[in-house]
Amino acid sequence: MLTMAATQTQTQPEPQTQAEDTDRPTPEAEAASTPIIVEGSTEAREVRAQTGSRIPGEPLYRDLNVATSTGIAGLTPGSGMQPFSGANAVTKRITTTCVSDNDAVGERASCLLLEAQEARAENDLAGAIDIYRFLVSSQQFGREERLTGGTELYNLAGEIGDTVLREEALIRLVDGDVLNEIRRRPAMLTLSDMARARGDNDLALKRLNDYRATGVTGPDIYSNIAILMRTTGRPGAEDMMQQAIDTAPDWDMPVPQGWLDFVRLGPNAPQMSAQEIGGDTSQQGELAEPGEQAEPEFATTTVLLETSMGTITIALETQRAPITAGNFLRYVDEGRFDGIVFYRAMHLDWGDQPNGLLQGGAQWDPDRVLPGIPHEPTTTTGLSHTRGALSMAMGEPGTANGDFSIMLGDQTGLDANPASEDPVWQNGYAVFGYVTDGMDVVEAIHAAPLDPQKGEGWMKGQMLADPVTVVDARRLEPIAE
To answer: What is the mean pLDDT of residues 225-249?
Structure first.
């Protein structure tokens, strides 16, 4: 929360904010420059006079210096001095400041954020955009302050539907070395998708190669690079796809026939569709259109969670994550999920909104909980923490039992990362299914009021004030005999 500012900000003339403007600079060009923010304190501070020293009750002002022409620090009751006469006039100066609820965001950044907030309230989007650009790009601010400015710019771009500005915001965050490892690499993949969505395949390819240079690369990335190399006429596309084929066994990923045909037919092969090449980006390496959903290719089991706010339909990945999905089904089949609640809603202010996760489960109820299960990392299953994914809650590998989360947005930083030095992130969390219907119900539960007093440690304030009950959990397919 921000309080009133004593800072004035002047911005550049209003820029164009519509992505369809043909003469508008590219996101890279926009990100290469930062508007000049002229900042200074007002000289005309508000000055008020105290109305007397003998008035009973609470003083009008506290903890402020008192200036008197006599040099006396303050008036004492019974002194006989008249505060509004002659040379003894008493005044107190009120100094305003800006405070953020994030301790890492200082006063100056807080004042600018408040200025931007006020500009948005007055529909001065150009002014707000310039302030956010300045915050995210200026080395005068700390990492957390730049992250806040960039996140606000990204979110504002989403609100007004400006895809060019949104890409620019992400470029500033990535190039400014603001994001940590968990968030930077997924952001780089998003930037590649953004470039391709606006038809810049050369830039999309460059960004994928930049991503590959930052750490461990899965076969899906190699396959996407191969497809873009062929699309842009670069040599060596078949060698890159062969690398995808060769590394797939290390990730326990099946090799689509389209990858094999891509290598076998060579550059003279007829144009193949996405389906012929095979799979989606997160699973098999096809460079899917943004938002495109691939047809399921693995066995799943459908489960319904009937909640007090509506029904959620889930496809459990019983083939790719048999241990974790099987554990969930046991809870369902034995009635252990009937009467559980969704109790936690974690909100994230970056990315497409709503973002974060919704958590529910047995909550260590001795009448419901079963022993922990072996961990199935995403490097084994080929699954990912994308929007609608179900993931097991756990303390460490082997402790997951009856609590699970549903992703409101892409949280691929929760996937296993073998290159990480942290054992937690080496293993990641286990995805075992996806919501196929009822994400509106998930979003409604996630948006329910929170109790600021509930929860412990870093989870305090993330607990629903009124948990939402799972009235009935059941599978649609009969249990195989």
So the answer is: 89
Count CA atoms closer than 13 A to 61's CA, side-chain side: 18
Q: What digits encode the pLDDT tens for the residues 185-210?
A: 777 877 887 888 778 889 989 988 99
Are 339 and 307 a contacting pair, CB within 8 Å? no
Residue 37: predicted pLDDT = 65
Separation between Cα atoms, residue 51 and residue 72, nearest integer Å: 17
Burial class (CB in 10 A: 0-12, 13-18, 19+), 32: middle
Q: What is the 3-state secondary structure (H, E, C) of the chain?
A: CCCCCCEEEECCCCCCCCCCCCCCCCHHHHHCCCCCCEEEECCCCCEEECCCCCCCCCCCCCCCCCECCCCCCCCCCCCCCCCCCHHHCCEEECCCCCCCCCCCCCHHHHHHHHHHHHHHHCCCHHHHHHHHHHHHHCCCCCHHHHHHHHHHHHHHHHHHCCHHHHHHHHHHHHHCCCCCHHHHHHHHHHHHHHHHHCCCHHHHHHHHHHHHCCCCCCHHHHHHHHHHHHHCCCCCHHHHHHHHHHHHHHHCCCCCHHHHHHHHHHHHCCCCCHHHHCCCCCCCCCCCCCCCCCCCCCCCEEEEEEECCEEEEEEECCCCCHHHHHHHHHHHHCCCCCCCEEEEEEECCCCCCCCEEEEEECCCCCCCCCCCCCCCCHHHHCCCCCCCEEEECCCCCCCCCCEEEEECCCCHHHCCCCCCCCHHHHHCCCEEEEEEECHHHHHHHHCCCECCCCCCHHHCCCEEEEEEEEEEEEECCCCCC
Rounded Cα distance, 154 and 173, in Å? 9
* Max CA separation in the chain (angstroms): 102
Q: CA 479, CA 455: separation in Å to the nearest integer? A: 38
How are beta strands 310-316 and 431-437 bridged, if at all? antiparallel
Positive/negative CA dihedral, 205, 211, 214, 218: negative
User: Which residues are 475's β-sheet partners?
Assistant: 303
Look-up: residue for tokens 């995805």? 431
- Tens digit of pLDDT for each residue in 50-78? 333 333 333 333 333 334 333 333 344 44
Which residues in 415-429 are b (16+ Cβ under 10 Å) and which e?
bbbeebeeeebebbb
- Which of 407, 336, 300, 322 minimizes the C-alpha distance to 373? 322
In this structure, are residues 234 and 212 in contact, taking their beta carbons and an 8 Å threshold? no
